[in-house]
Amino acid sequence: MAKEGDAVPSVVFKCRVRDNSMTNTANPFTWKDVKSEDLFKGKRVVVFALPGAFTPTCSSTHLPGYEKHYDEIKKCGVDEVYCLSVNDAFVMRQWGLAQVGNFKKVKLLPDGACLFTRGMGMSCVWDSERGFGERSWRYSVVINDMKVEKIFVEAGQVNQNSGPDPFEVSDAGTMLGYLQSAKK
């Protein structure tokens, strides 16, 4: 499991971006490879990871909390806030449209192949428990120039079929408290 001071994994995220040159199409998007370095090198960012798009806690509390506190988090010297889930770009887009609509604040980051999640040591499998397969354990992290500055991992991480899905320390309030205290 990643700890403070560790380098974050260097992976490629398979993203979809609007391509304005694609006219007369119902799907004006194209694939774009986005490297960890594109997102985190020379920047201070917050990433919060969760088990899945469209799931109850993720949709009712986790993502909405970070969206609500986005401006306060940015004022603490954070360049960007990303929500990461082991879902593909299509699912993340539809969930984002349903949750935040305009993508002007929190950005959704698809880790469909689970590469970043595995590299962070946060992979877990909820096959018999929830039918999810491989997903991310719930956590939040401040990444400062490709290194873990601070990480909040929910207690009780189990790599296979965890019954509980705790939500106590990866929330926006905990992250904001840390950022405000680190700013002083």
Task: Characterise this structure.
One of its GO terms (molecular function) is thioredoxin peroxidase activity. Belongs to the peroxiredoxin family. Prx5 subfamily. The chain is an alpha/beta fold and 184 residues long. 30% of the residues lie in helices and 27% in strands. The chain has seven helices and nine strands. The longest helix is centred in the middle third of the chain and has 13 residues. The protein is globular and about 50 Å long. 32% of the residues are buried.
CATH topology: Glutaredoxin
CATH superfamily: Glutaredoxin
Biggest beta sheet attributes: 5 strands, mixed
Q: Estimate percent helicity.
A: 25-40%
Structural category is alpha/beta
Mean pLDDT: 89
The unreliable regions are none
Order of helices and strands: EEHEHHEHEHEHEEEH
The multimeric state of the shown protein is single chain
Question: What's this model, at a glance?
Answer:
The protein is an alpha/beta fold.
Keywords:
184 residues, alpha/beta, Glutaredoxin, five-stranded mixed sheet, two-stranded antiparallel sheet, 7 helices, 9 strands, globular, peroxidase, Thioredoxin domain-containing protein, PRX5-like
